[in-house]
Write a structure and sequence with these properties.
The chain is globular and about 60 Å long. Helix 6 links the parallel strand 7 and strand 8. The chain has 2 domains: 140 residues, Leucine Dehydrogenase, chain A, domain 1 (Rossmann fold), CATH 3.40.50; 128 residues, NAD(P)-binding Rossmann-like Domain (Rossmann fold, 3-Layer(aba) Sandwich), CATH 3.40.50. By secondary structure, it is α/β, with parallel strands linked by helices.
């Protein structure tokens, strides 16, 4: 914590920020946001809080006048009913990962969707492209709504047919069972599952044969930075988008909601990459 808050002027005017979840020790949000505060001169301190009592934590945010919070697993859905206002997009997605405290009024937003789309749009247009989103959980929901909002032709690809068809029905997209997915005809492939995350780094959510040279392949997993899916995709001639890009862009959305300042995106990215022990 000391290195994250070095050179910060902390006084009675310093705003407090936090990430709440369980588990939380692995989170890189404090490193990223405190670096952004230092860079922009914003008087703020961001900490990680392991939370098992969610109603108590939300009451604490009000009582301590914590300006903003990130919300992570397992609280993204349950937190919605504890807030004063939920942004329509977050309500539609069904999850909140960002809280803004305006004088005791707590508003909830979802930065995963705009963060994911910003990362994807850096590498490829989405409108009128055929996009396969692998998974049907919370991250898949955020991606699905983002793809539809940007005019993409979406297919939900999932191992569980019931869960996959449910999400596809909610967002008005096609559905394909994972076992039937060939990749043929798709321009963009996004993995929203934890397949390939440490320690299971040799796993891929789809086979090598599903990857086409003209594809853009995105993986929301950021540890390891280059998952096996991205490594094989890159070697197959695909354009790749790593999970750090989404993580940073969703953090930038949060930073700007909280502070009203423009987020130092490149500095945030460098900070996260350094924390992962990687070099740009």
């Amino acid at each position: 914590m000391a290195s994250e808050t070095a050179n910060l002027n902390v006084d009675s005017n310093t705003r407090l920020y936090a990430v709440i979840g369980d588990p939380i020790a692995h989170s890189l949000s404090p490193v990223m946001h405190n670096a952004a505060f230092r860079q922009t001169g914003h008087s703020g301190v961001y900490v990680a809080c392991r939370v098992t009592d969610l109603p108590g934590a939300i009451a604490g945010i009000r009582a301590l006048n914590i300006r903003g919070c990130s919300v992570t697993i397992p609280h993204k859905v349950a937190v919605m009913e504890l807030l004063d206002h939920v942004d329509p997009m977050a309500r539609q997605i069904g999850a909140v990962n960002t809280i803004v405290n305006d004088a005791g009024r707590l508003s909830g937003f979802n930065s995963d969707s705009p963060g994911a789309m910003a990362a994807l749009l850096e590498k490829t247009p989405v409108a009128r492209r055929r996009v396969a989103v692998i998974g049907a959980g919370g991250a898949a929901r955020a991606l699905a709504h983002g793809v539809k909002a940007h005019g993409g032709n979406l297919t939900i690809v999932n191992r569980s047919e019931e869960q996959g068809r449910r999400l596809a029905g909610e967002v008005g997209s096609d559905f394909c069972r994972l076992v039937d997915f060939s990749g043929v005809g798709y321009d963009i492939l996004v993995n929203t599952t934890p397949v390939g995350m440490i320690p299971h780094v040799d796993q891929m959510p789809v086979s090598h044969a599903c990857l086409r040279p003209a594809m853009t392949v995105m993986d929301i997993v950021y540890n390891p930075l280059e998952t096996r899916l991205l490594k094989v995709a890159r070697e197959s001639g695909c354009t790749v988008v790593d999970g750090v890009a989404m993580f940073v862009h969703q953090g930038a959305f949060q930073f700007e909601r909280w502070t009203g300042d423009k987020a130092p995106v490149q500095l945030m990215k460098k900070t996260v990459l350094a924390a992962l022990g990687k070099k740009q």
